[in-house]
């Protein structure tokens, strides 16, 4: 059974799963790199805190296509999302995101705060499509696509 949903449904379902997702980027060798992240939403943009010199940041500079997979529940419910990422490391964006968008203390990872952490940036992920899987898809799949 496949249903159509909107992005708000995707975000709400993901928020009930886990604060953790796995982010897949593609390296210069055309091979995938996957890492756990704690994404947060601001409107329809999914944000992830990163090091500006990290593998994630270097990969999206070459290939901005990314995928996220939220950790599944005990019964196998999950969310997968595909989109395009850009790196934001300007001070204005960092200050805006630092207090009010993320649901955890960013200072634990960058004690200098937005002004004193030049090596810290954020990936802005513009979602293009996503799916909700219930019971690994056996309980139904809901799809969303931009536009």
Note the topology.
Elements lengths: L1 E3 L2 H9 L5 E6 L5 E6 L2 E3 L2 E7 L3 H8 L2 E6 L7 E11 L2 H8 L21 E15 L5 E6 L2
- CATH H-tier superfamily: Electron Transport, Fmn-binding Protein, Chain A
User: What's the overall average pLDDT, rounded?
Assistant: 95
Count of DSSP strands: 9
Write down the overall geometry.
Answer: globular
Low-confidence stretches: none
Helix-strand pattern? EHEEEEHEEHEE
Distance between the termini: 22 Å
CATH architectural arrangement: Roll
Q: Please, how many helices?
A: 3
Reported for the largest beta sheet, the result is: 9 strands, mixed
Helix content: 10-25%
Query: In CATH terms, what is the fold-level topology?
Result: Pnp Oxidase, Chain A
Radius of gyration, whole Å: 15 Å
Number of domains: 1
CATH class identity: Mainly Beta
Structural class: alpha+beta
Strand content: 35-45%
What do you see in this structure?
This protein has 147 residues and is α+β, with helices and mostly antiparallel strands. The protein has helices spanning 7-15, 55-62, 91-98, and strands spanning 2-4, 21-26, 32-37, 40-42, 45-51, 65-70, 78-88, 120-134, 140-145. The chain has one domain: Pnp Oxidase, Chain A (Roll). The protein is 17% helix and 43% strand. Strands 1, 2, 3, 4, 5, 6, 7, 8 and 9 form a 9-stranded mixed beta sheet that branches. A hairpin with a 5-residue loop joins strand 8 (120-134) and strand 9.
């Amino acid at each position: 059974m496949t249903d159509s949903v909107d992005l708000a449904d995707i975000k709400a379902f993901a928020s009930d799963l886990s604060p953790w997702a796995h982010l897949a980027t593609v390296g210069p060798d055309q091979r995938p790199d996957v890492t756990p992240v704690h994404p947060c939403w601001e409107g329809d943009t999914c944000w992830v805190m990163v090091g500006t010199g990290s593998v994630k940041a270097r990969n999206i500079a070459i290939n901005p296509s990314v995928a996220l997979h939220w950790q599944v529940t005990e019964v196998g419910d999950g969310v997968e999302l595909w989109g395009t990422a850009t790196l934001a490391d300007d001070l204005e964006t960092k200050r805006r995101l630092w207090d009010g968008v993320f649901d955890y203390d960013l200072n634990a990872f960058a004690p200098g705060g937005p002004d004193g952490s030049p090596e810290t940036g954020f990936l802005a992920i513009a979602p293009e499509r996503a799916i909700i899987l219930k019971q690994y898809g056996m309980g139904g799949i809901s799809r969303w696509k931009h536009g």
